[in-house]
Amino acid sequence: MNTEIFSTICGVISALSGIVTLVNFILPLIENEKTKKKIIVMCLILFVVFGVLFFIFKRTSPPPPTTTTTLTTCITTTTSATSTSNLETTTDVSSTTTSTLNNIKTTEPTQTQKEEIITSPSVIVTVTVPVYVPVTTSSISLPVTAPPSLTTTRRTTTTTKVTTTKYVLPLNDPYEVGEAEFKNNTTLPKTITIPDTVTIIKNYAFENCDTIETVIIPEGVTLIGENAFYLCNNLKKIVLPSTIVSIGASAFDNCTSLNNINLEVTKVNNIGIHLFIDCKMLQEVKIPSTVQSIDYGAFERSGIRTITIPEGCKDIGGQGGLAFRDCEYLVDVYLPKTITNIANNSFGGSKNIKVHCYAGTQAETILKNDVGLPDNQIFYR
């Protein structure tokens, strides 16, 4: 029987047995009769498809490669000394060889071979026989490429020097910032530095300048006038020089974002009227030791938390009082021994306040008798 047909039949029988086994296993688990029939039909279809594919695959498989092997048969005979007898012997041997080897094609000897046959006592017969040899290895030629050259990437860091032009405040007079010179200006940068030549910042100089956030005042400036930075709502930081001796009333009035000012380095002797009124973000101010009075409404409605008034200060509130009125976050006020006047209502509306004073001083008497502060808000240092 043909080997291809036999292997095909064996494969089909194996597939059929596998399918039957699978059906026998699955069918008992299924109760619905229609489902069982569907499964059987599907299995038969799969079987037929499998058989057809298997047969096609076997038919289209390529035959094993053939190679040609050259078989050389050497036959030695004893011939006579003459060339004619040698040639006849060669012919007889060729005939004998042809009749002996079945279905073997004898190749015609070349001219050189004929000469060898004539001159040599040996007879050489070359036979080409087709032989089927299974191919077990194959030679694959792969393109050989040179390895990539190793390249070194050098990273170059470029440093760009950014040159910023310092803003120069344009002044009418190089020695002073004139009265209302920049009032309501909306083009000033966020940070301004007062020129070194300036000694005075006059009244209303920067009133209502919403763009500025930081002001740097150089050494040499001695005076900041009234309302100089009034209503600068975005002003957060002011750097003061040690040469300042006077700051006018309401200089920082309604600077609602102000939270950083180094007042303690100055030599001012008075905290002016409404100097920090409505500075909601201002939590702490250190009073310089040169201060002798804190005027009317100086810290009214500010965000101050605690304050220590230095020795040498004599007056709080002036004639109008309200120095620390409605400071809702103010908790501790420390008074010196030198206090001789505390205006009425200086601490009005500051509900959480605790005033610390020295026992037996004039400040204690004023707090109890004139200011009317309850005993639970008076503490002793």
Gap between N and C termini, in Å? 124 Å
Number of discrete helical segments: 5
Biggest beta sheet attributes: 4 strands, parallel
Radius of gyration: 59 Å
Count of β-strands = 19
Which word captures the global form? Answer: elongated
What's the average pLDDT?
78
Strand order of the largest sheet: 4-6-8-10
Spans of 5+ residues with little confidence (pLDDT < 50)? 66-133, 135-140
List the helices and strands in order. HHEHEHEEEEEEEEEEEEEEEEHE
Please indicate the percent range of residues in DSSP E strands (runs of 2 or more).
15-25%
* Helical amount: 10-25%
Structural class: alpha/beta
Please sum up the structure shown:
With about 375 residues, the protein is α/β, with parallel strands linked by helices. The chain is built from 5 helices and 19 strands. Among the domains are: about 5-60; about 65-130.
